[in-house]
Amino acid sequence: MILVVTFYKFVSLPDFAEKQSILLSYCQAQEVKGTILLAKEGINGTIAGLRDRVDSVLSFLRSDPRLADLEHKESYTDTPPFERMKVRLKSEIVTLGLPEVDPNQQVGTYISPQDWNDLISDPEVTVIDTRNDYEVDIGTFQRAQNPQTETFRQFPDYVQKHLDPSKHKKVALFCTGGIRCEKASSFLLAQGFEQVYHLKGGILKYLEEVPTEESLWSGECFVFDERVAVRHNLEEGTYEKCVSCGHPISESDKASPKYELGISCSYCFDSLTEDKRLRMQQKQRQLELAKKKAEEALTPKSNHQRSAQG
């Protein structure tokens, strides 16, 4: 089994650029793969590998006193979720587009997964899913509002148009692992919202710790790796990903006449340019040819074939 670990921490890292090559080399030496983002405001990552190798990377990260209390979440998968290791430098570890919003200065009130149900069941609480529309499509919490954003950068505009500090006295936010809510809650507090709450550890921690029979979550949770989605107990979900647009697709989505393996799905069919369609078709043909050759190489040859070649 392959261990998948996600983590983030908002902390001042003025020397973040200097850490890039050292961290990349260490991860590669441990044969750990995934993506780690570094910025002046902190670190954000998802990595995967053998348990002892991933533990070694986490220990290496925590050897920096500023990351000594770095928290992480774990899940398992049978197949490698990443093809390579990347350590990228960013202006933000989660992009809101407002550098003045600083979770190191202020954030909302953390709510544990065990207390989350009571909070979002309160009719006086406005519950908001801070994720993007394609993520919300496959699963969300009961009573949650969908901002219908395509990127997190659009969240401030949604707040300006649909929320009012004088009317929405209590606001509860949630996201995949908790990182977007750190910035979203910091932004709301700066806009004058007084009681802002967010789910500690995000949806992933909730699905890990809250029993299915007590859950107020419906559907699956989109994740940013080859698993595509997870369910309760962080078991791998049922969705695949459209190669062309990246939207999660279900078995019923595949029944659409607009779905073509490796080329399009109902979410991108109408906007797909002819040039991209041709490129995707060519790529799919190459993949199918490579797969066929690999299968032929693994197929035992008959005695007749061996004698003919010998």
From TrEMBL:
Task: Tell me the keywords, alphabetical order.
Answer: Oxidoreductase, Transferase, tRNA processing
Q: What class of enzyme is it?
A: oxidoreductase
Q: What is its EC number?
A: 1.14.-.-
Name the residue ranges with Polar residues bias.
300-310
Cited SUPFAM superfamilies: Rhodanese/Cell cycle control phosphatase
Segments forming domain Rhodanese: 121-215
Q: Give the InterPro entries listed for this entry.
A: Rhodanese-like_dom (IPR001763), Rhodanese-like_dom_sf (IPR036873), TrhO (IPR020936), TRHO_N (IPR040503)
Question: Region annotation Disordered: residue ranges?
Answer: 283-310
Citing just one GO molecular function, the answer is:
oxidoreductase activity, acting on paired donors, with incorporation or reduction of molecular oxygen
Spell out the Basic and acidic residues composition-biased ranges.
Answer: 285-298
| Reaction(s) the record says it catalyses | uridine(34) in tRNA + AH2 + O2 = 5-hydroxyuridine(34) in tRNA + A + H2O
Judging by the UniProt lineage, the source's domain of life is Bacteria
Pfam families noted in UniProt = Rhodanese, UPF0176_N
> PROSITE patterns, per this entry?
RHODANESE_3 (PS50206)
GO BP of this protein: tRNA modification
Role according to the record: Catalyzes oxygen-dependent 5-hydroxyuridine (ho5U) modification at position 34 in tRNAs.
Q: Which family does it belong to?
A: Belongs to the TrhO family.
Question: Which PANTHER family does the UniProt record give?
Answer: RHODANESE-LIKE DOMAIN-CONTAINING PROTEIN 7-RELATED (PTHR43268:SF3), THIOSULFATE SULFURTRANSFERASE/RHODANESE-LIKE DOMAIN-CONTAINING PROTEIN 2 (PTHR43268)
Q: This protein is called what?
A: tRNA uridine(34) hydroxylase
- Native organism: Hassallia byssoidea VB512170
Upper classification of the organism:
Bacteria, Bacillati, Cyanobacteriota, Cyanophyceae, Nostocales
